[in-house]
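Cross-posted from the bioinformatics board.
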Amino acid sequence: MTSELLRLDGVGVRLGGREILRDVSFTIRPGEFTGLIGPNGAGKTTLLRVILGLQPVTRGSVLIDGAPRAARDSSIGYVPQKLAIEPDMPLRVRDVVSLGIDGHKFGIRLPSRARRELVADMLAAVGAQRYADARVGELSGGEQQRVMIAHALISRPRLLLLDEPLANLDISSEQGIVSVLARLARAEGIAVLLSAHDMNPLMPVMDRIVYVAAGRVAVGRTDEVVQPEVLSRLYGQHVDVIRVHGRVLVVAAPEGVDAAEAAAEDASAVR
Amino acid sequence: MGHLLRYVVEPGFFGSGPVHVALAVGTVIAVTSAVVGVFTVTRGQSFAGHSLADIATTGGSGAFLIGINQFWGYLAFGTGAAAFMEMIGVQRRRGRDVATGVVLGAALGLAALFLYLGTQYSSTTGASFTILFGSMFVITSSTVPVLITSALLALATVVVLARVLLLSSLSPDIAAARGVPVRAVGAAYLMALAVSVALSA
């Protein structure tokens, strides 16, 4: 099918004899907002690195538009979890966003009005114009996330990958980032794949969920995947899914509860 | 202005040949170092930059030992060490500092050996001083074109790599995902740094 932007087929990754990912398959269509949800250490970052071509797979394939990924693929934008910069790095927000256009190219470029305007528009789109001339290293985590989203989006990718963009953010920055992403995804038809250990801030905007636990994934609509039976199977131990006021908590059952038995019990209790 | 300068420099100072050479070379080196230096800071490689100067000394003393122009020694050892550091150094900053330290230690040992051997075989007592500290006023005019060419090469390398270097300092992962050969670029930059350091040495 050509309407698939990204397709992972039976992807497996081994690192130093340890199996990080096993039999991961899912697809992403244009404009879809997908949450890559799972506990810390489940393999979310590795999965994103596989899609970016930074992590070779031991098994399976990754197809973008039905073809293996090209070395210089501008159709994927990436926002890493942490920047490798010190607070005193002499790089302004404006310059960082501008690097998103052609930071991978050699040679110099001359400043141009069109370029300045493009950068300014992008900064406005993510709500970062207030600190456009500040040094990136001096910004808070949420502000840096906005800048890096602008950096990733300015080259007009069709798929945007974000690694834990909501980690360590306060609640209002968290909501700000989510709404910026949702708005841009809708307006520009950009597919978003965002990793997070907490799915709740994403509930209103997520079309689909890729739930990672113990190196395996469960994929589908949020209400299909976030079920005690599905997640218990994934974790290999019994977990409960508790819903409170539209929010979801996934919690491990106390020691000694048999997984299969509890899952069966839950399945009847829910109905 | 002229009257004031008289108190600072002897009359006829600017008419002397060695001064012209020193001024020309000094200016080129200053410009190159300024441009290269910006990226040294953004990439957190100040330690590497400092070490390359010391390592270049090893080359200088080696060149003195075998009787060739010291600049070639500076250049060969500086760029060689730069390539070696990038090769053994992992991408993380801490790893890079360890790599720098290892190469620096080995080079300083060799420098001491070369200087010892050099002074054994020749009676030039000023050699150690010239190699270790150098002087802008003893540059022979035949070396000048070489110095300036090297400086321009280093400058050109950095100008060509400028954007790529910035992007990989921001996030090596983003750079790699966009098809930038991050390690090769790092090695090329470190060599440009080595050249500019060798020039000032």
